[in-house]
Amino acid sequence: MNALSRRDWVKLVGSGAVGAAAVALPAACGAQERGGAREYTLPDLPYAVDALEPHLDAGILTIHHDKHHAGYVRGLNAALNELQSARERGDFGAIQSLSRAVAFHGSGHVLHTLYFSNLHPKPARPSGALLRAIEAQFGGLEAMVGQLTAATNKVAGSGWGMLAYEPLGERLLVLQIEKHENQMLCGAVPLLVIDVWEHAYYLKYQNKRADYVKAIMNVIHWDEVARRLAQAQKL
User: Fold this and answer.
1) Can you tell me the distance from the alpha carbon of 70 to that of 64, in angstroms, rounded to the nearest whole number?
2) In whole numbers, what is the pLDDT of the chain averaged over residues?
């Protein structure tokens, strides 16, 4: 699997996917050459499928990664292929739905790649520059986690909770995303994302989203969040 370049992700972002995510993506989010065009590929999980138990079990992760995340990769490739065909025909009658599909499936791919990589079986606590930034912006880790938890629990319908870095104001922000692309603050760089589509937790937690969000806080890969922050601050 070839690493997807920053330039390629900037192209994806310019098509309507999650803004500024390119700078924070792990190298495992890849693409491969096929017929002269790059196709997006599903990255492997960075840990064993049962590694996050009891907080997230193997059944949830298998379906989430192998079915749902894979579906967004297929949807993104399909939408881009259809756009190529539309250009060749000079027929843009479906441009609205195809543009929407690129934003939806592309953002779904970006966010799921970030999500799986910001989980870890035995995470260290936040420290260093990340902890200092959290303390400066939120008054402490507990306050930030409290706001992120509340925002994530209150996402309307399906979506995501997010801790992001906003480079213009040089600040951390807690955001909500509906679906994969709605309510995203342009330019904000995702540092930590929590998936609250029901497929992320329903097998274990049923409709108890708050229990899932509380549990997932035990497996947040804070070192990965710190890496993304350091990268985002170089913008």
Assistant:
1) 9
2) 88
